[in-house]
Design brief:
The structure holds 2 protein chains of 2 kinds.
Chain A (H helix, E strand, L loop, with lengths): L1 H48 L2 E3 L6 H4 E2 L4 E8 L5 E2 L5 E5 L2 E2 L5 E6 L7 E2 L4 E7 L4 E9 L2 E9 L6
Antiparallel strand pairs in A: 1-3, 2-3, 3-9, 4-8, 5-6, 5-10, 7-9, 10-11
Chain B lengths: L1 H48 L3 E9 L2 E8 L5 E2 L4 E4 L2 E3 L3 E6 L2 E3 L4 E2 L4 E6 L2 H5 L5 E5 L5 E5 L1 E3 L7
The chains are: A alpha+beta, B alpha+beta.
């Protein structure tokens, strides 16, 4: 009789241990998955709320392209509901599809409110990058997954 | 034998319940944040659709550029988010006046529908090195209008 009870006891303990092991693993893994979901979800919400628009006057190519210094300047407005820091690593510029590396970004500053380092909704930022452009040019600015482009034609150096 | 199965099932069910307790609140929070984001995006699109402006006149006289813009939309615009570009360059105006029929004020930051905004930029020669050709006014949703500047020569020649 006691032999049967001992067997039962051992199997009982064993099955409880297995169950506890499974339950513990499930709880830990679901915890990790839920943190990952939260990070991903808030990132998606941020991307949806971010919206920018290039407001440079496309008819005034002289204000955009500085042929003497080989720089390109665009004005970008935050028309979304989310602020962004005024930081060259957050704002990416593509000229004719080519990425402009951070060291070619000459300046990035807010022009409607001097000296601010937060690009609030409604704020305008001026980006100047070092790049020689000519002919048909397309400039794309990307912030937090949201982008806007402008296209214009740069006359070559000969004056008409 | 029977009891150990029940015990094991009980432990696993408790574990699953704890897991669900962690997962579902996160799912709801993420769903809510994404829903809010879409909602503010659609608010913005609606404001953008309801925004319209037209530059009535842009005159350069006596080194002062005066631009008159009418809010033709149905949304009140905010002057702190309205930008003026002269010849493609960002400018801070010297004075902005909202004109509503007979009344006008330069103390307000609001530009209601149907009213006119007068933007005054002084010292044009000093700021731009000569005459300017084009002015562009951009609202907070990036809806903009642009016009050519009319230079008015004054009769008396000043030295």
């Amino acid at each position: 009789m006691s032999g049967v009870s001992a067997t039962h006891l051992i199997m009982f303990v064993a099955s409880l241990l297995v169950a506890a092991g499974i339950a513990g693993t499930v709880v830990v893994e679901v915890n990790q998955m839920s943190s990952a979901l939260e990070t991903r979800g808030t990132h998606v919400a941020e991307e949806i709320e971010t919206e920018i628009a290039i407001i440079s006057d496309e008819s005034q190519t002289d204000a955009i392209v500085d042929a003497e210094n080989d720089t390109v300047t665009v004005l970008v407005k935050n028309v979304g509901s989310r602020s962004a820091p005024v930081d060259p690593t957050i704002v990416d510029v593509l000229i004719d599809g080519g990425y402009v590396p951070n060291e070619d970004v000459v300046s990035l500053e807010r022009v409607d409110v001097d000296g601010s380092d937060t690009w609030r909704p409604g704020g305008v930022v001026e980006i100047t990058v070092e790049r020689e452009v000519s002919g048909d040019t397309e400039i794309t600015v990307v912030v937090n997954g949201n982008e806007d482009s402008i296209r214009f034609h740069v006359q070559d150096a000969e004056d008409t | 034998m029977g009891f150990s199965t029940s015990g094991a099932v009980a432990v696993m069910l408790i574990g699953l319940m704890l897991a669900a307790g962690t997962l579902f609140p996160t799912l709801f929070a993420v769903g809510s944040a994404t829903g809010d984001a879409f909602s503010s995006q659609s608010d913005q699109i609606r404001d953008q659709k309801n925004t319209d402006l037209e530059i009535r006149s842009a005159e350069l006289e006596n080194d002062t550029l005066t631009t008159n813009v009418t809010n033709e939309g149905t949304v009140t615009l905010e002057l702190s988010s309205t930008d003026v570009l002269v010849d493609g360059q960002f400018v801070h105006p010297n004075e902005t006046t909202v004109i509503d029929g007979d009344r006008e004020t330069n103390e307000t930051r609001l530009w209601p529908p149907g009213t006119e905004l007068e933007i005054v930029i002084e010292d044009v020669d000093e700021r731009f090195g000569g005459d300017v050709d084009r002015v562009k006014v951009v609202t907070e949703t990036a809806i903009a209008d642009a016009a050519a500047v009319e230079t008015i020569e004054t009769e008396e020649e000043e030295a």
